[in-house]
Design brief:
With 401 residues, the chain is mainly alpha-helical. The protein contains 14 helices and 2 strands. Helices cover 76% and strands 4% of the residues. Helix 1 packs across helix 4, helix 6 packs antiparallel against helix 7 and helix 10 crosses helix 11.
């Protein structure tokens, strides 16, 4: 890859990624050897799993590790590009650190909003009366809820799912609004109160757009859960197969159209349907893919989260074994530490992912207008491959630049 812009954040990004990449291989090797030795030394485990089967599993896991190494080597150029993309996103995020205060407050607001709904659900169960019931000539009393209680339960659950999806889209909107103001500002005039402006727009003129996007996401997730559950319960039948394929195609189309829609709405202030249409046309005109940005960067970030949390859990277990007498409880504490760190790092990665998506849309807008608002961003994102589905032999190769 050609020499491109390297901010200070990119230096630390390279250190983290290059330090974690070997651990992508080292940790599976460690756990693979550890369980093999532990099972061999344990009489109960070795009786259940004979030596031949243990060796077979050991070799199979090593083959998987070999495939992981091959994937890393084969995609090394994409890894380097991803490091630069993450570095650019980290630089943008460093200019809007207050997002790490605002976003948890939005989650806390959702919890406060849930509180009365949960209380009403609990008290709704007490609405009813005892009615007599006859069974084999014997009479007994049975509690019968009022007819409106099941409907209220359904309405409350739908409301909670919708509210959760709206909160997620609200966070995406706030992140996109703040980052886009940074992107389109001049270097010497960083906008003030950009997060406050984004919040005001989210709860104001774009609230309906966010609610519509939230209900679409909630419906997609519910339908996808129903389809997955139906596949597990009744996997056979040509009719079920056709219905599942149609549902998957429809849900995939909605996900494709919804990708970057809220980002674009936060940048331009357009309504949901207009934003979805304009985003699709924007990416198609500029031969940009709607899925590439999230493929490599998300996998690397997810791997880093897993590696760092696993290293932290192993270190916690080692310290507890050395300074305490918890015994087997040290494993439980290590697992809890692993879960807590994964939640924290997953939140950070989610924010960074949204920043990457927002910068991608801003770059597409710049490219569409023939403008360059952030030269350093263009120097990185210009290396992204164009969309193959929109490639035309009549388009000159100069458009790739």
């Amino acid at each position: 890859m050609d020499q491109i812009w390297e901010p200070e954040e990119l230096h630390y990004t390279k250190q983290i990624v290059y330090a974690c990449l070997p651990l992508f291989v080292a940790f599976p090797i460690f756990f693979n050897v550890y369980w093999f030795v532990a099972c061999t030394l344990s009489s109960s485990c070795s009786d259940v799993l004979p030596l031949a089967y243990r060796i077979l599993v050991l070799v199979f896991v090593f083959l998987i590790i070999g495939i992981i190494v091959w994937i890393q080597v084969a995609n090394w150029h994409r890894i380097e590009l991803t490091i630069h993309i993450i570095g650019v996103a980290s630089d943008a995020l460093s200019k809007n650190l207050k997002l790490f205060l605002v976003l948890p407050l939005l989650t806390l607001g959702l919890v406060v909003y849930y509180a009365p709904i949960v209380v009403f659900l609990v008290f709704a169960r007490f609405n009813g009366k005892f009615v007599p019931r006859e069974s084999d000539g014997e009479y007994s009393c049975e509690w019968k809820q009022d007819s409106w209680v099941p409907a209220y339960f359904a309405l409350a659950i739908v409301t909670m799912l919708w509210s959760l999806a709206v909160m997620v889209e609200m966070q995406v909107y706030v992140i996109s609004g703040a980052i886009s103001q940074w992107y389109f500002s001049k270097e010497d005039s960083m906008p003030k109160k950009c997060i406050r402006t984004s919040l005001r727009n989210a709860f104001g003129q774009s609230f309906g757009t966010i609610c519509l996007s939230g209900i679409l996401i909630a419906v997609v997730r519910v339908v996808r859960a129903i389809v997955d559950n139906a596949r597990e319960e009744n996997p056979q039948g040509i009719v079920n197969l056709v219905l599942r394929c149609c549902a998957s195609a429809l849900l995939g189309a909605i996900d494709y159209l919804n990708k970057f829609t809220i980002n674009f709405a936060a940048i331009t202030g357009e309504a949901y349907c207009t934003s979805a249409k304009m985003t699709y046309e924007l990416l198609r005109r500029n031969l940009l893919s709607a899925v590439f940005v999230e493929t490599v960067s998300t996998r690397i970030l997810t791997g880093i989260v897993f590696v760092l949390s696993s290293a932290y859990a192993v270190a916690t277990w080692a310290v507890l074994r050395g300074v305490s007498n918890l015994g087997k409880d040290s494993y439980l504490v290590a697992v809890l530490a692993w879960l807590v760190l994964i939640v924290i790092l997953a939140f950070l990665v989610n924010v960074l992912d949204n920043v990457i998506d927002t910068i991608y849309v801003c770059y597409a807008i710049d490219r569409d207008k023939g403008d360059v608002c952030k030269q350093e961003v263009h120097e990185v994102y210009v290396h992204l491959p164009i969309s193959r589905s929109n490639r035309s032999p009549l388009i000159p190769n100069a458009l790739n630049a």
